[in-house]
């Protein structure tokens, strides 16, 4: 006999006063409780009716759950529609009239018969608490025949829109959707709205025809077949404006981008024509030497859009994206959230900003970053108030059929991972498209959660206009060939219903085409120059740096008394928070002690001082990464947890709660916000998100910290296409700052290196010393004060630059790497090169240039070898832009006497900074003096996996550095 094992006792977690874990629920800036919307439960009378009419309830629930499978949502109708016998009322014992039974679609018909019938033809059923009918169709009566019920269910759930929402765990959400659908699923559209939609479709089609004629050899990824995307966007923007949205943030790929930009948004057609002709669209003040501009299908805009009848516009931000599909998705999410910072006291997230994310069907299912991005939707520091996702599902990738693209039934199945409702609609029925969008938006407004529209369309031509799709998809393209265009179909429908006249339609089309034709001469380069780009909203105080400006030190020192107080406040927990005793002893007491002395400040303290002083000056900070609240090395403790309840406090966040006793460094701005984010275990989506955040305001320091620097490369696409090259392609500045723990300590191939060499490859640093504007800064700092200055420099310049810090691991608490308050005081600043004090430079026989923590290990060895004074170490703290002048000055005292010059590194020779540094160091050396490499030989992995191998390698490096002295 099967015996059930006794259940193990449940593990009890510490619980807050409310009975549930409160970590992050209170006390961390940036967290907002999800918007609650509840519907009343069924009344006792309704519940009784549901119990009495259980078979009817089962039938209705079947339609809600399975109806989408039989809906008519594929304009090509190529796939075999599945049989869904669960939709046949007779399967539940009901009788239908012969007329209604004859009308049942094949997919519904069940072959299970005969059944004992629970009803006779014409019997009425009480639908109270089971099925909603529109108020207009039946007065107050809740009694309906099975014919009425079956017809209604098929209309609502199996028409041109298919709904998936029964997987939603919240009964309030399910009931909200059910009620909306059942009461008003086919609400007619106003004729004006229909005409406006038709005009959009016609304009989009016209644009594609016009460009095909005028520029037949340019790939533009036209929208033909998928024009309903225009209706989706127009409906979203128009409806969003009606409910008070001010900004729509839009991330989208190539398909139909030009149609949207020029035919709904107001991107100047002359810019499009310039791009078609291979000319830049950035203005002449963005010279080619510094700005590479970007391709046609990456055009972007921030533009006002005034919906028909609206008094004023909302702003649509269609963000720049690279070719890498879906990379823009998390970027746009970050942008949408950051637009809401500082958060309003009265508006909940999403109140004034709507995030819209458009995807292709192949990319949505295929690109992992989509799953990573979806996972951000409801997380405390990533939620933006709900995104409307639109999958423009043309049922094919480049040439790959959807059956080869995904393992799931629908292109959108992935979104079920976050329990988002999904609405499938055919793009051939623009009225249904608008209805689907309105439903999706209504859900998003009520619950401020993600929702998905699967817009099922087709692609009339190849992936691009130079392809022949029939090579690979002959059946599909045979079908497409015979389909009238979407605009034509809708035009016929509107003409038949007397909403539009054929002559008006024809004259609209021809005058629009004439307007397009007229742009060609106007866009002639002799007549038209791209207009100047104003700094984006909020960036008015910023300017563009000039060549060589990076070499000027930036004043970043702060009054010592202010710093001391900020430091003390950084570990001050509210009195009702009980801290872990070890944390008090090891972290807080030590910090307090070092601040009192004004010496021995470790990296984490320096960071807290940089953060706190920036906040006092009115800058906002967002620090995001895996376990960043505590810090990978348990060094930061920016978030303190109460040992009884897990309630948390972020001391630096409370800096503004009472004034500092010492004179303030305040800029007159209110104290900034400090958002500390323990991110999900994603790099790609999270770094993308932070890039979006970085673009919104120059007053926010966006920091992403890797758990270990090694893991940044799962976000490589963002680093290549945004961090490194966003400014040069799109003329947009960003202060995105990466902290990548880096250091060779025997931790193995994947916990040692942030791959300095790869970031060096991403810089625009010229091969030879010449003035330039760097695209980013790469640093490897070795003292706490240097780190302090560096973080502050990010915000104290009049322009913004990405910064990559190969940040410390082992030296975080090393006394030798600690700094004094005096090293952070007014008059001090970041030093790109650190050199050592030498009593008698003439005695120095060897100079070793290096970067990072190897310095401290070699200093120790030098002492042990008794070689102080004979060998000097010069630390390259900023690797790029390469500090020629500072390095040259550091070498000066030893030029005459030093017999040898070494570059030493922990990394293998095919990694680290050597190949970048060597030719540049050479440029500040006299002729004939050669830089020698000391480090590991080239390796297939960056560090050995065995501690003893690592130590052998280290010993060889040390031996070579000191050899012959
Ligand atoms: C990450 C990435 N891989 C490959 C490509 C090459 N590529 C460009 S479009 C495309 C097909 C996209 O299909 P889908 O997502 O359905 O969008 P559609 O073009 O059909 O609208 C491919 C494979 C790319 N741009 N990005």
Automatic annotation (TrEMBL):
Cofactor: thiamine diphosphate
UniProt cross-references to Pfam families, sorted A to Z: E1_dh (PF00676), OxoGdeHyase_C (PF16870), Transket_pyr (PF02779)
Gene3D superfamilies: 3.40.50.12470, 3.40.50.970, Multifunctional 2-oxoglutarate metabolism enzyme, C-terminal domain (3.40.50.11610), TPP helical domain (1.10.287.1150)
Residue ranges of every copy of the Transketolase-like pyrimidine-binding domain listed in the record: 601-814
Coiled-coil residues: none
GO biological process entries: generation of precursor metabolites and energy
SMART domains for this protein: Transket_pyr
Keywords of the record: Oxidoreductase, Thiamine pyrophosphate
Gene Ontology molecular-function annotations: oxidoreductase activity, acting on the aldehyde or oxo group of donors, disulfide as acceptor; thiamine pyrophosphate binding
Protein name as it appears in the record: Transketolase-like pyrimidine-binding domain-containing protein
Organism name: Rhodotorula graminis (strain WP1)
């Amino acid at each position: 006999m099967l015996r059930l094992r006794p259940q193990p006792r449940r593990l009890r977690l510490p619980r807050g006063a409310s009975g549930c874990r409160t970590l992050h629920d209170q006390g961390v800036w940036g967290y907002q409780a999800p918007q609650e919307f509840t519907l009343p439960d069924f009344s006792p009378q309704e519940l009784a009716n549901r119990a009495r009419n259980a078979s009817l309830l089962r039938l209705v629930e079947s339609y809600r759950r399975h109806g989408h499978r039989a809906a008519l949502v594929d304009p090509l109708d190529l796939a075999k529609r599945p049989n869904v016998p669960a939709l046949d009322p007779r399967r539940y014992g009901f009788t239908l009239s012969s007329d209604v039974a004859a009308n049942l679609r094949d997919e519904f018909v069940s072959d299970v018969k005969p059944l004992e019938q629970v009803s006779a033809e014409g019997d009425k059923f009480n639908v109270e608490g089971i099925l909603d009918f529109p108020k207009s169709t039946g007065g107050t009566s809740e009694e309906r025949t099975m014919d009425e019920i079956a017809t209604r269910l098929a209309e609502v759930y199996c028409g041109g829109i298919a709904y998936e929402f029964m997987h939603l765990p919240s009964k309030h959400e399910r009931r909200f959707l059910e009620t909306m659908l059942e009461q008003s699923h086919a609400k007619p559209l106003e004729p004006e709205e229909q005409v406006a939609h038709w005009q959009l479709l016609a304009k989009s089609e016209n644009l594609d025809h016009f460009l095909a004629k005028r520029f037949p050899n340019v790939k533009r990824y036209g929208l033909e077949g998928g024009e309903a995307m225009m209706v989706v966007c127009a409906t979203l923007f128009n409806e969003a404006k009606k409910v008070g949205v001010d900004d729509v943030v839009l991330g989208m790929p190539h398909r139909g981008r030009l149609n949207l930009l020029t035919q709904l948004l107001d991107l100047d057609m002359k810019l499009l024509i310039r791009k078609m002709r291979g000319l830049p669209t950035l203005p002449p003040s963005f010279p080619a030497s510094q700005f590479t501009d970007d391709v046609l299908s990456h055009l972007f805009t921030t533009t006002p859009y005034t919906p028909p009848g609206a008094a004023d516009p909302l702003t649509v931000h269609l963000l720049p994206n690279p070719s890498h599909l879906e990379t823009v998705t998390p970027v746009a999410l970050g942008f949408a959230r950051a637009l809401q910072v500082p958060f309003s006291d009265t508006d909940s997230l999403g109140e004034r900003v709507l995030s819209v994310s458009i995807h292709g069907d192949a990319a949505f299912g295929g690109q992992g970053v989509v799953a990573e991005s979806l996972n951000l939707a409801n997380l405390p520091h990533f939620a933006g108030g709900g995104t409307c996702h639109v999958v423009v599902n043309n049922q094919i990738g480049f040439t790959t059929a959807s059956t080869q693209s995904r393992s799931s039934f629908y292109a959108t199945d992935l979104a079920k991972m976050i329990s988002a409702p999904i609405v499938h609609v055919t793009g051939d029925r623009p009225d249904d498209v608008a209805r689907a969008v309105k439903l999706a938006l209504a859900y998003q407004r009520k619950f401020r959660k993600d929702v998905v529209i699967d817009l099922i369309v087709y692609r009339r031509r190849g992936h691009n206009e130079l392809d022949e799709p029939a090579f690979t998809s002959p059946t599909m393209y045979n079908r497409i060939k015979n389909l009238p265009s979407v605009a034509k179909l809708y035009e016929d429908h509107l003409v038949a219903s007397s909403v539009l006249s054929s002559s008006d339609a024809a004259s609209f089309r021809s005058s629009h085409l004439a307007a397009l034709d007229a742009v060609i001469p106007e866009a002639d380069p002799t007549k038209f120059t791209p207009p100047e780009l104003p700094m984006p909203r909020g960036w008015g105080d910023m300017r563009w740096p000039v060549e060589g400006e990076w070499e000027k030190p930036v004043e970043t020192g702060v009054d010592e008394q202010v710093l001391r107080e900020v430091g003390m406040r950084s570990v001050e927990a509210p009195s009702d928070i009980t801290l872990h005793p070890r944390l008090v002893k090891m972290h807080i007491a030590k910090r307090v002690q070092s601040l009192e002395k004004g010496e021995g400040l470790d990296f984490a303290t320096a960071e807290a001082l940089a953060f706190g002083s920036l906040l006092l000056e009115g800058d906002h900070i967002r620090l995001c990464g895996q376990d960043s609240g505590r810090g990978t090395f348990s060094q930061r403790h920016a978030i303190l947890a109460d040992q009884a309840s897990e309630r948390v406090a972020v001391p630096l966040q409370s800096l503004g709660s009472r004034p500092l006793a010492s004179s303030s460094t305040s800029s007159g701005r209110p104290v900034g916000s400090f958002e500390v984010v323990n991110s999900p275990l994603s790099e790609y989506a999270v770094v993308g998100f932070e890039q979006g955040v970085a673009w919104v305001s120059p007053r926010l320091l966006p920091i992403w910290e890797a758990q270990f620097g090694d893991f940044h490369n799962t976000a490589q696409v963002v680093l290549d296409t945004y961090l490194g090259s966003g400014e040069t392609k799109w003329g947009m500045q960003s202060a995105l700052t990466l902290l990548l723990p880096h250091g060779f300590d025997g931790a193995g191939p994947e916990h040692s290196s942030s791959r300095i060499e790869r970031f060096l490859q991403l810089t625009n640093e010229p091969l030879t010393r010449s003035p330039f504007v760097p695209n980013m800064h790469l640093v490897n700092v070795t003292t706490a004060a240097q780190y302090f200055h560096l973080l502050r420099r990010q915000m104290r310049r009049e322009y913004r630059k990405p910064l990559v810090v190969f940040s410390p691991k082992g030296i975080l608490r090393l006394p030798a790497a600690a700094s004094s308050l005096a090293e952070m005081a007014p008059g001090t600043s970041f030093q790109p090169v650190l050199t050592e004090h030498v009593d008698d430079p003439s005695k120095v026989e060897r100079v070793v240039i290096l970067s990072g923590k190897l310095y401290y290990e070699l200093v120790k060895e030098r002492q042990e070898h008794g070689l102080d004074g004979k060998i000097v170490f010069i630390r390259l703290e900023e690797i790029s832009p390469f500090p020629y002048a500072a390095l040259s000055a550091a070498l000066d005292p030893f030029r005459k006497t030093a017999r040898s010059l070494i570059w030493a590194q922990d990394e293998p020779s095919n990694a680290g900074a050597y190949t970048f540094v060597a030719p540049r160091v050479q440029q500040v050396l006299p002729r004939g003096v050669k830089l020698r490499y000391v480090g590991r030989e080239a390796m297939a992995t960056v560090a050995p996996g065995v501690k003893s191998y690592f130590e052998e390698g280290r010993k060889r490096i040390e031996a070579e550095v000191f050899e012959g002295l």
